[in-house]
Write a structure and sequence with these properties.
single chain, about 650 residues, alpha/beta, eight-stranded parallel β-barrel, three-stranded antiparallel β-sheet, 19 helices, about 40% helix, disordered N terminus
Length: about 650
């Protein structure tokens, strides 16, 4: 799709020229070689040529979002995409272990407060969902508004007709209430698709029937049957029925309703835990009870789950449903949706990818049945997640499973040591398997250098950056690193680390060492600085001074403590990186008041100047460190000059 220019993203044209041009220039041999290298490094099976191209396409999309370099090729941990997807037949799945993924990001997900999407944004997301390989896309609620109808219809006409080389094309589904007007509108919206589906629903729990619908159970039963029959009469042969709030409904009544709608023509029976009320050992057996209650009719339909996350159990309940016979799971990208959201597609998919072959079937809770799998190509998870996040404006919490910013980050020293030695010590999947290219950043192991990091992690990253430090210098950098990391949230990046090396290793050998600096400043206040320095004799001394500003006050306090008089000739500061907590690097140039001179090669003398640099998250501390470094250089130069003069005097 990327090669054809079929990946429109808001703010980008055909996945940006920056990503598309290199992609089109690559040769098949190079693609295969890149994929072989990537897979060898992660010890996973190599995909076939088409799978390689899919991985590269995902890399191009990711590069458009700034996630990976354009020429990076994601490695996959699973071989899901290499397995043939069973032919799509409504109500029947030829592979008993295949679980259909029903994505409702564009319908239930958009119902999140503030997550409104435009028609074009919905189309972009639908295309990404097709790349991801979802079996069914619930494109919206067509009766809701003319815009909703147009968006669903556009997705049906475009994405619903993009059949790939393997014959895959997603089912395009429209939601409707159980009345003829809604159903007809939904059918009109989705019928241009190669595989259209109408999803109709009515509540079956006592509280909903009595207080919301004000209907008797018999009336609800009849409405459900009539709705399915009407959808069937329009020519729709793929009909999904949902008994809303099934998790709080009477199972016997549910069996009665489900049996009747199967007879009326329903092909998928979706069991919603609408309020997130159920727990896994309750919801899973409910699925099994309903299947058994339908008898032979259960073989003519696909059972589905739709679990809300009010108690944080949506993914667990969905997996429990699959373990007990559900073969469709409804979910959303990033878990967005009403109230606390839905089961997150990425969590469901990766749980089945990692556990499906080993923890279901004979080893599952039922003690029988097949191993489970999906048709999802997980390498597209990260770019799809980022697109949904950007379009909806719904931020992903940093510790969110699979797609959170911290999901593949490691700050604890113990964890970092393990990751450096073997990534499998703390990661059960590779970030590359979900389309997140880690590359050489963070030591290739998601290592975040923060206050919990150990010496080994810092040493490893310095070596990777090209610094070969002896033990004493490394210890000096590490101590300074710990001081800064205590104050800098989010850890230190490579630029920060290099600034510390320059500050600690490449500055003059310390005669005076800055211990502390504290300033008082503000409107109507005389800037005052208190500075503590440790001198050449190892004794700590404190000085207090006032100045025109906090930095000037600190410099005057340092002058008083060191008894060195200098002119500040230049002062500059720059941010090492972006953000409110960025480190600052200060550079100063001073010359002594006594006009130390040096002989120039041309024969004339020049005033001697001494430079210093310092880094810290606090600009005053950074400035003080730079000034002390320059003063130390001056003192050492004076000591060398005095020693030379003494030698000359002795010789004379």
């Amino acid at each position: 799709h990327a090669a054809r220019g079929n990946t429109p993203i808001r703010g980008f044209t055909a996945v940006r020229a920056i990503g598309r041009a290199p992609f089109l220039a690559w040769q098949p041999a190079a693609l295969k070689a890149s994929a072989a290298l990537a897979h060898a490094s992660h010890k996973v099976p190599q995909p076939k040529t088409m799978a390689v191209r899919c991985a590269v396409a995902a890399a191009v999309v990711s590069s458009a979002y700034g996630l990976v370099p354009p020429l990076a090729t994601p490695a996959r941990q699973t071989s899901l995409s290499a397995q043939k997807r069973p032919d799509y037949v409504p109500g029947v799945i030829s592979d008993p272990g295949y679980v259909r993924i029903f994505d409702t990001t564009l319908r239930d997900g958009e119902q999140s407060p503030g997550a409104t999407l435009t028609s074009n944004e919905k189309l972009d997301i639908a295309r990404m969902l097709a790349k991801l390989g979802v079996d069914i896309i619930e494109a919206g609620f067509p009766i809701a508004s003319p815009d909703d109808f147009d968006a669903v219809n556009q997705i049906a006409r475009v994405v619903g007709n993009e059949v790939d080389d393997d014959g895959y094309v997603p089912v395009i589904c429209g939601l409707s209430r159980a009345n003829p007007k809604d159903i007809e509108r939904a059918w009109e919206a989705v019928k241009p698709a190669v595989r259209p589906r109408v999803h109709t629903f009515i509540a079956t729990s006592p509280i909903h029937m009595e207080t919301k619908l004000k209907k008797t159970p018999d009336e609800v039963l009849q409405i459900a049957v009539d709705a399915v029959k009407f959808a069937k009469s329009l020519g729709c042969d793929d009909i999904e029925f949902s008994p809303e709030d099934a998790g709080r409904s009477d199972p016997e009544f549910l069996i009665k309703v489900l049996s009747a709608v199967v007879d009326a023509g329903a092909t998928t029976l979706n069991i919603p835990d609408t309020t997130g009320w159920n727990v896994p050992w309750e919801f899973g057996p409910l699925i099994q009870q309903l299947r058994e209650g339908l008898g032979e009719k259960a073989d003519r339909v696909v059972f589905s789950t739709h679990c809300q996350n009010d108690l944080g159990l949506s993914t667990a309940n969905s997996i429990a449903g699959a373990a007990h016979g559900a073969r469709q799971i409804e979910c959303t990208i990033n878990g967005i949706g009403e109230r606390a959201g839905n089961a997150a597609l990425e969590e469901v998919v990766m749980a089945l990818a990692l556990k499906g072959p080993t923890h279901f079937g004979a080893k599952g809770p039922c003690g029988e049945g097949p191993d489970l799998r999906t048709g999802i190509d997980p390498v597209h998870i990260t770019p799809t997640s980022n697109m949904v996040k950007e379009y909806t404006g719904m931020a992903v919490q940093p510790h969110k499973a699979i797609v959170g910013a911290n999901a593949f980050q490691h700050e604890s020293g113990i964890h970092q040591d393990g990751m450096i030695k073997n990534k499998q010590t703390y990661e059960i999947m590779t970030p590359e398997s979900i389309g997140l290219m880690r590359g050489d950043q963070q030591s290739g192991a998601g290592i975040v250098l923060g206050k919990h990091s150990g010496r080994n992690a810092v040493s490893t990253r310095l070596n990777e950056l090209g610094y070969d430090l002896d033990d004493d210098k490394l210890q000096s950098v590490f101590i300074r690193f710990k001081e800064v990391a205590e104050r800098k949230k989010g850890g230190l990046d490579d630029d920060d680390l290099e600034a510390l090396v320059a500050d600690e290793v490449y500055s003059a050998q310390a005669m005076w060492r800055l211990e502390r600096v504290q300033v008082t400043t503000g409107s109507g206040v005389v800037p005052t600085a208190t500075v503590a320095l440790t001198g050449p004799d190892g004794v700590e001394r404190q000085g207090v001074a006032m100045g025109t500003g906090p930095v000037d006050a600190a410099y005057k306090a340092i002058d008083a403590l060191t008894s060195v008089k200098v002119h500040l000739e230049t002062y500059s500061m720059e941010s090492v990186n972006a953000g409110i907590e960025a480190m600052a690097t200060t550079k100063v140039v001073v010359n002594p008041v006594d006009s130390a001179t040096s002989l120039h090669s041309s024969g004339y003398t020049t005033s001697r100047k001494f430079s210093g640099s310092g880094s810290d998250t606090d600009v005053v501390v950074s400035s003080a460190r730079a000034y002390v470094a320059a003063v130390n250089k001056l003192i050492r130069w004076n000591m060398r000059r005095a020693a030379a003069e003494q030698v000359e005097a002795q010789e004379a």
